[in-house]
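User: Can you help me understand a structure? I only have the sequence.
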Amino acid sequence: MNNNIVELPELLLLNNYGGDYAQYIEAVYEIFKRDFVTNKTKFRGEVLKLKWHPIYQDKAYTFYHITHTGEDEQNRLPDLRRCERMPWTNPTIEKCDTWSLKIWPQQRQGKGGIKDRLCIWLELQNEPDYIVILEVRDNYKLLWTAFAPQYPHEKRKKQKEYEVWLKTQKSPGRNS
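Assistant: Let's start by predicting it. Here is the structure, written out as tokens:
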């Protein structure tokens, strides 16, 4: 991370809601709605879209994907680290260039084939890093997920992806 000052909102903690998960997840969803439904977060001037269906527990599917974890889409589990960082998602996206964050394209296997995505990596000194993933569609970008890497191998994998992409940008004859 460079010397740009990153000012993030405070984490949204379950303890602030007396351990009441139902009340807590509603508060997390209110931040999601404020930032992505009402105020329309933008990535480099482009309004992000959300995946609404299938609706999960009366909430947009994108919310479910950001706040839960697991490979099996039908059985994802709530992830408090993801929920706590919901207030960080909007500024990470909207200030990615101001903060000089690492941003690079990646491809992932998804339903229906290979999906083009953008990875935005907020590296932090005193907190776990935060990564936001946008899916690139034909005429828009879709907020896909966001997470705080929990294990060193996750950060190493992202660093390797970034370095591989960076090398392609510095190849002779390529435009950055």
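Now, to help you interpret it: The longest strand covers residues 113-122. The helical segments are 21-38, 61-67, 80-84, 86-94, 152-169. Let me know which part you'd like to focus on.
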